[in-house]
Fold this protein.
Amino acid sequence: MNRLIRITASLALAVGLATGTLAAEGAAISGEVKKIDEGAGKITLKHGPAKSLGMEDPMTMVYRVKDPAMLKQVKVGDKVTFEAEEAASGYTVTKMDKAK
């Protein structure tokens, strides 16, 4: 019986880890840089659906950035993929890369 519990727990852990990885990979949002405001630490992004943020329709939004150094790595017109989270102060980009 103890062995059965261990096997079941191991299987549940493996499924949980795999599901978490898939969810994290699905969090990336595709967009285009429309405006950069380094002084305010904000970026305006035109993007497609952002299901990780509960946004089903494409839109253009202003986001805060977690790390102001991200703003120096892109310019207006760049295609990017990014991840963002919702906080009390608004939406914040937590990760951003130029699209390939």
In short: The two ends are 51 Å apart (CA to CA). The chain is about 25% helix and 40% strand. The helical segments are 2-25. Residues 17 and 23 are 10 Å apart (CA to CA).
